[in-house]
Write a structure and sequence with these properties.
With 517 residues, the protein is α/β, with parallel strands linked by helices. The protein has 4 domains: 2-127, Response regulator (Rossmann fold, 3-Layer(aba) Sandwich); 178-286, Alpha-Beta Plaits; 293-404, no CATH class; 407-512, Homeodomain-like (Arc Repressor Mutant, subunit A, Orthogonal Bundle), CATH 1.10.10.60. Helices cover 61% and strands 11% of the residues. The chain contains 23 helices and 10 strands. Strand 7 and strand 8 form a beta hairpin. Helix 3 runs parallel beside helix 4, helix 10 packs across helix 14 (337-357) and helix 17 runs parallel beside helix 20. The longest helix has 48 residues, at 109-156. The chain is elongated and about 110 Å long.
Length: 517
Amino acid sequence: MKKIFLVDDEMAIREGIGKSIDWNREGFIYCGDASDGEIALPLIEKHQPDIVITDIKMPFIDGLELSRILREKMPSLKIIILSGHDEFEYAREAMRIQVTEYCLKPVSSQDLLTILKKVSTKIDEEEINIKRLSDLENQVLQNKSASRDKFLYELCEGLYTFSEAIKEASNLNMNLISSYYYIIIIECTIDLDSINWIEDEYDCLRFSRKLKESIFIMMGESKQTLERESEIIRQRLLAHEELHPENPLIFGIGRVESRIQGITLSFSEADEEKSYSTIIHKYSSKETEIDIESKKEMQHFNRRDLIDFLKFGLSSDISSFARSYSSYLEKGNVRSPFTTYYFLMDFTITISHYLKELEMDNLEVMQEINQLEMKASWIRNYHEVLTYIEEMLHLVISTRDRFTSKYSSSVQMAVDYINENFSDSQLSLQTVADAVNVSASYLSHMFSQETGKTLIEYLTYTRIESAKDLLKTTNNKTYEIAHQVGYSDSHYFCRTFKKVTGLTTKQFKNQKQVFSI
């Protein structure tokens, strides 16, 4: 019901209007009255009426001045002017103030009731229109947010060229231009607001693809700065988990990449790390203080290296990879005997999840995995660690190789074409797509979806693996090896080699000599 407040300096009029109408029956609430504008103002602010009926000629603050003040303080309030002065100037001033109704005294209770119902209907119509407008605005915002999230997700999936991405970002009023990018994906089980500081403190674009998950496209002009930034963020996320175990954060962070196309690679890495971290987190949900300390020590291990090897590694490289991946345990820095066990469990769970993810977890394979896993708790020295890793990797790589035909025909053809032609420096997504007779965007999407890597990432990995073999088995110069594996620029080859392996070509050769002892 609408609330009515009356202002008139004549008591008889106030009492007459107040008592002549059955307010409740007519759908109104008579919330009060006052003899002049000065007395009325605080009462109106207190009662917050929907409609004010006021006389024009009153002492202290007259009706027109009261209307000006109310129009400024309460713009949605409806004002009805009552006046015994049939003069044009009053009416014109009332119109200028935008009062709702202007009528002359004397006014009957029935006429006043008719005016009140008319004003009440107007209030209802305005509220409906305001709600409709608000709903439309919310719908526009939701549609814009959905379009924004859809675009950013498709960008991460590699479905846009550089020019298409810049154009669409501009249409959505987003600044996407940067020299370097990396991706953070975080899933919160309780409160997403706990990670708002990332958006507040860093240059990024945030979006979601599902409930309780946020994806950040981080941007910057310096690769070194972004790498330091990503490490700071990683440590803060880990610290949050220690301080708030009731609200764990499952996250993945991709490497810093240049160019917009690099967003896809970083997104794939972040998504994969998050996926595997979810499995590890479930496994280690009940931890003692010793467990937590061991888990901190395990931060020295890069699970991504293992995932990459599971996908693309060769049987001939298992021994060198096993030593490289577990080298921290060999250095004598391990403070807790639990660390070796946790390392082996992390290693085993990652492998199990990889097999399940690719639907290679048949009964026979998992039985062999379980039999090997039973040995882990009895391992005491580094030589036994290496033996365990190598046995497990031989099992997985042989299983993986038997299942390679599970790729779709287009992706398998692309893989075969890359393996046969990676030495061609002109090889690209487009040339491979042309060779297998599909569009580049379709191949890019399907290749990433089925292999877990972008096509360019797979090409780079294949070239670097071939380069590693050549470095091991020949005395060719670096520039010669670069050309042999498809790099026309030896400097670019050296930078890529170090980025992928973490070592220069010279360091890799020296490492090979150490491992051969």
